[in-house]
Amino acid sequence: MFDAGSGTAIVPFKRNAPTVSHHKPICRTERKSARWQIALATFFARPGVEIFIGGLVIVSVFLTLVDFAFYTRDATYENAPLLTEVIRLNDFITWVFCVELTLRFLAARSKRGFFREFWIDILALLPLFRVFRAGRALRLLRLFRILRVFGVVTRIASRFPEIVRRGAIEYVVTIGVLVFTVMFGAGALLHFERGSTHRHSILADGQQQEGQPQEGDAPLDELDEAFWFSLFSLFAGEPIPASPQTLGGKMVAVFVMFMGVTIFAMFTGTVSAFMVERIRTEGSFVSWEELHDHIIICGYNSRADVVIQEYLSLPQGGRSAVVLIADRENEASLLGESLRGKVHYLDDDFTRVASLEKAGVHRAKTCIILTDTRSGRSLQDADARTILAALTVEKLNPAIYTCAELHNRDYGTHLEMGHVDDYVVSGEYGAYLLAHAAMKRGLVSVCTELITTRKGNEFFRVAIPESWVGRGFSELLLHLKQCHRAILVAVHPPDDEAIVNPDDYIFQRGDDIVAISKTNFEISPPA
Known about the structure:
It is elongated and about 100 Å long. Helix content is 47%, strand content 9%. α2 runs antiparallel to α3 (80-107) and α7 (168-193) crosses α8. It is an alpha/beta fold. The protein has helices at residues 28-44, 47-73, 80-107, 111-123, 146-157, 162-165, 168-193, 223-236, 247-280, 304-312, 353-358, 379-396, 412-417, 428-439, 443-451, 473-483; strands spanning 2-3, 8-9, 295-298, 322-325, 344-346, 366-369, 401-406, 422-425, 458-463, 487-492, 499-500, 512-517.
């Protein structure tokens, strides 16, 4: 193998060579625990489980709002039995979340990563414990669970086609923050503003009397009033219809207005990024899942345009879609004006498995990997990336035809060991043509015509029909010249190298031939 970081070759171990391990052997209990953790992680990753958890989150948030609404509306607790049932049901759901998070903690490979992902859900469990029940405001923490629903939606959205997934995470996060702000604002206002309009009194000299709020006060002791106050204040950027009466309510109003500015900025940035991406890709949205038998080109250099132009010069019925995987970096555009819109472009690193799978490597027919020396990469680094990509492609789809470009022929053995179909050493063929041009005049024009599809004759690879099995090379040579105006050049047996101009060869089943012709053809039966 080849190490891209150091630029040195790594000699693989022999299959039967003894190896020395300095690690502690894994006991049976550790292996069983590892399998159990994998089973748990797989269970929680199922879409059905994700949807069930999301449904529980929605029910829990609704019950929390009902809890605050009943507690505010009836200070005398006339609906105490119903309120008690609501609290018990919400506590039961919280216990379910407690068990779920415990199992997720046990299944997590990284405990630090678990706390980094689920710290909000852990805070939402605090009202469940008696020591935290003294502060009723802590029940508001359960409203934070609404953010988890949008994480579930984002993960489920990743299973849909690309055109549905495009921008899904950004939009879901923006909508999630908006819904959470309105819900949290409504619940917090219910908590702080309950009974605030009943604590005044009006005396004969003009002072307030109990039960008669002053003009301009905001009666926010009902769920619908608190909800609309949060929604209006979020979009207007000021308390509407009026400021809350309590200090806690005023702080909640400030929080809602601040989140309104934040959500507007998030929405504007998301839409702007989407429009910029749309303009940069010239409005071409690719349904990657619909690509089949296409050609994938990994990396970019000055020869990429030539490769694509040669392929696109084939007749319309003889070619399929072309996908170019390359990191655009700071270049405004990689391809020339004539090729834009004819190639599906994927702005990503072609050595990543995710980018290859997104480009449909499992359904592709051909993959060409070019040496990419942009961003100041050395030739060794470029060859290392080429080898890594070629081996990855062969691992993902062994049936695909893979051809790689190298700068150093010495690294070709790595591709041969990885069963890569072909590789080309850039610069060598140009040097060969220059050398032969100096020794044999007129050879360059002949080679130029044969290796390009846009001029005169070219090479064609044709399968041998059953009628020619058992017949000789010389007989087919005459037959092609007389019937197809083609010149037989070589034979390509299955799972073997091509044999150029053999002296005597008998065709077998599965053989292909290489011939020079102006148009493609099918071999007719012998006379």
